[in-house]
Amino acid sequence: MKQGEGDMATEYFEKVLFELAKKGEQDKVKFLKSLYRRIMPSQFERIKKNDKSVFAELFMPKWVTWELLKAWAEGFEVPGKGKTCILCESKNENGLDFNDRFICESCFVRLKQLE
Ligand SMILES: [Zn+2]
Fold first, then answer.
1. Residues near ligand 1 ion, CB 5 Å cutoff
2. Residue 77 has pLDDT above 80, yes or no
3. SS3 content of the chain, % helix, strand, coil (to 5)
4. Across residues 15-24, what is the average pLDDT?
5. CA 84–ligand 1 middle distance (angstroms)
6. Which residues share a beta bridge with 92?
7. 3-state secondary structure of 84
8. Pair 85, 107: CB distance under 8 Å
9. Which of 24, 56, 71, 93 is most buried, with most CB under 10 Å away?
10. Residue 7's pLDDT is what?
């Protein structure tokens, strides 16, 4: 992905969400916000690759366009496993908890080296 592409996609997606909310279309807003639960990870990857054949498998309501779906996929970050590190903000399964804050293994190693 080129830099900025994801941001533009997110912007478009947010704009649509905003317009729907303004029109009082709460059901549609809710639907878009929970999109990830309706789409399998493999399908998610295909959307990102602009593989339109996946569109027929998804049975999306008519108002959900391919453009919108793709914008969503480009801006959406797949929830990873593990906890979010307070230093690098990436998800990691290995690391340590300090007072309810999680520090991932690689950041912890880096901190140790600074000592
Ligand atoms: Zn980290």
1. 85, 87-88, 104, 107
2. no
3. 55, 10, 35
4. 96
5. 8
6. 83
7. strand
8. yes
9. 71
10. 81
Up-side HSE of residue 95: CA atoms within 13 Å toward CB? 26
Whether residue 52 contacts residue 69, with contact meaning beta carbons closer than 8 Å, is answered with no
**For the residues 32-43, what does the mean pLDDT come to?**
89
The region, left, alpha or beta by phi > 0 then psi within -120 to 50, assigned to residue 101 is beta
d(CA 106, CA 41) in angstroms, rounded, equals: 27
pLDDT the model gives residue 99:
81
pLDDT at 1: 44
Tell me the whole-structure pTM to 2 decimals.
0.64
**Distance, CA of 21 to CA of 2 (rounded, Å):** 30
Tell me how far apart the alpha carbons of residues 106 and 61 are, in angstroms, rounded to a whole number.
43
Give residue 50 CA to ligand 1 midpoint distance, Å.
32
Ligand 1: centre distance to CA 105 (Å): 7
Give the H/E segment covering residue 48.
helix 41-48
**Which of 79 and 32 is assigned the larger pLDDT?**
32
